[in-house]
Design brief:
homodimer; about 160 residues; mainly alpha; Arc Repressor Mutant, subunit A; 2 strands; DNA-binding
DNA sequence: CATGCGAGTCAAGCTGCTTTACTCAGTGCG
DNA sequence: CGCACTGAGTAAAGCAGCTTGACTCGCATG
């Protein structure tokens, strides 16, 4: 869980910009998360796939809706769906409201992944709460929520790669 | 600063996972930051370039060192340096300790960018502190610092794209 | 001198996305 | 009815940013 390569010696974490801290925290958490998922035998799904699953979770969505929520073009979303369909994680069904639309829905395999991922993530965050000692990651959570609200209103922005 | 496309109606920010919140917060901040930089006439430099500048800031570094700090291959780092050199932001100087090494250092243009970027980032964070009302982004900062320390020890990990 | 190592670089390839351009189903309107 | 128009999906090509593999060169060490 720790980097043992000491490529540089200065230790200026406290003075670091908020933005940097956010980036590092996110990166570390996500990396650890995906690593644990891989250990749990889910190495074939990257974070973006988990994101797709969450979006499709309740009622599915059309390709275009998916694209909007992911913040990519509909072609890119289509490629993701192609891939996931081929691997048996989603199905394209005719859309109930007809038209040229198709409804992309999750298969059982995807729901199984969501279950594992959810547990893994919760474990990770719980473990982290213990390790920081503070125990009140709740504080952190509410502060972050305020920050996000301040910048994006009530609509969660698409979560996308970062540079 | 806000997304006005309301592509979905549920509003479950509070129950969101910590990891999601971190991702959204980071993404929003970085997007706003780069946008403001672009308005300030620095549209030709992406966040990764700012990262490079910060690494080279004090004493410069060799290509390999830079690659390690960025978390990419030395070839990728070399391409970044090629690009920045061509655009006048860095120079390759012979390394004082000789060998095949070269020391990559910043030009005045890069230092100017760092100044603008630093100010922009500070303004943004200050404005955010006002808008959240809490005023104590210091709390957030220290909590994030604890989190990062808990996961990475004292060595800031390379900050890289995320999925 | 030979061997090996580490830094840098050249070249090819890949992946995930974008841009451009098209097809097709439904809608509204003369 | 015929006909433009819209919006979803798809097909194809291109591109950016990275990787892997193979190499060159400077220097240290035996």
């Amino acid at each position: 869980m720790c980097h043992d390569k000491d490529v540089h010696t200065d230790d200026r974490l406290p003075e670091a910009e908020l933005t940097f801290l956010l980036g590092m925290a996110f990166q570390l958490l996500l990396a650890e998360f995906t690593e644990r998922l891989a250990e749990a035998g889910q190495a074939d799904l990257r974070p973006v796939h988990g994101m797709v699953f969450q979006i499709l979770r309740s009622e599915g969505a059309t390709g275009t809706e998916l694209a909007q929520r992911l913040g990519v073009t509909k072609q890119a979303a289509g490629q993701l769906v192609d891939d996931l369909e081929q691997r048996g994680y989603v199905r394209r069904e005719p859309h109930p409201e007809g038209g040229r639309r198709k409804l992309v829905v999750l298969t059982d395999a995807a729901h199984a992944h969501l279950a594992v991922a959810g547990r893994t993530l919760h474990d990770l965050e719980a473990e982290l709460a213990r390790r920081t000692g503070t125990g009140d990651l709740a504080t952190l959570r509410t502060e972050l929520t305020q920050l996000v609200r301040a910048m994006a209103g009530d609509t969660p922005p698409p979560l996308r790669p970062v540079w």
